[in-house]
Amino acid sequence: MFSDKENGGLGIPNIEAQDSALKIVWVKRLLDESNKHCNWNIIAKSQLSRSDTLFKGNMCERDIGGCQLLPKSRFWKDVIINWLKLNYSEPTTKCEIKSQSLWFNSHIKINKKIIYKSRWLGKGVKKVEDVMGEDGAPMSFIALRQKCVIRCNFMEYYSVINAIPRQWKKTLSSNDVQGIRNQRAYVEVIDTLIQTEKPSKMIYQKLAKRFAQFPFPFLKNGH
Description:
Elements: H1 15-31, H2 39-47, H3 51-55, H4 74-87, H5 94-98, E1 109-110, E2 113-114, H6 118-122, H7 141-148, H8 154-163, H9 166-173, H10 177-182, H11 189-195, H12 199-213
Antiparallel strand pairs: 1-2
Helix pairs in contact: 1-4, 1-12
């Protein structure tokens, strides 16, 4: 029903997708350097703890509550929740896995909780690839400390490395040369959003495709 007529749909605009797209556009405005001195931006960032890292993470909506990151503002709360719905993904290829953020990632948890380590981030450890060696295996404790000059003990190191999904490590250490050649360069959703001149249209099209695949969520479980 919501698909383009060329794809067999009726081309009916999806109001929910439009509303979500308009809210998500504010993520681009918030991170735009030209807006950083605007009063609204300063006030918003005072409410949005660690917003830059949050928007570059890969968190699903169900995990946001336990992180105590939702602001009091109803508007910005809606912006974050809609962003999570758009951005969350299940990485499978080497490029996707290597580009995954270590922080605010629903796939990487310690004791069932999302992790964020400011000391590591401050030393440039942001993504999975930052703790992996050239062979695709996790760097040793000593190698990581020497490379990034991180002050941490072995247990902290081990907990972070162990939190990375086993399947991801297996994929990264595999020697599937043909698979690597066939992979396209991975571009994060946040980077696409920032670089796009008309982000609302791009976001709407992504969301509309999801609604087109399953327009009636209450029928998903056969109810």
